[in-house]
Amino acid sequence: MTEQKYSLEHETAVLGKDGLAIQAGWIKVYHSNQITREFTNSDIEYVMLGVSLSAGAYPDAPKLPDSHDKAVCRSEDGKCWEILPDYRGKIAYDTLTREPQEITEIGELPD
């Protein structure tokens, strides 16, 4: 069998255990906001040999939550995706002052 002269497929990047490309090419990545760690979008990136993914990009796909009151975020150590409570835009009441406060951040409510 002879090698094809042309190909309709793109080269796929391969990442080593250290996160650097051991084969240059294209790879699907999943981005997180660098401040909130919330999943933002997926994209296709070209990775050169010996280079890592762009900041905030990860090669593993997140599992999507089954309800609107959950958010997909990268873990604090950056090793995996996690599902966290998302009460943003809702009103909570301070347990000491009983003052209403709009929730603006992802995660569990403080006591």
Automatic annotation (TrEMBL):
It comes from the Bacteria. This is Phage tail protein. It comes from Photorhabdus luminescens subsp. mexicana.
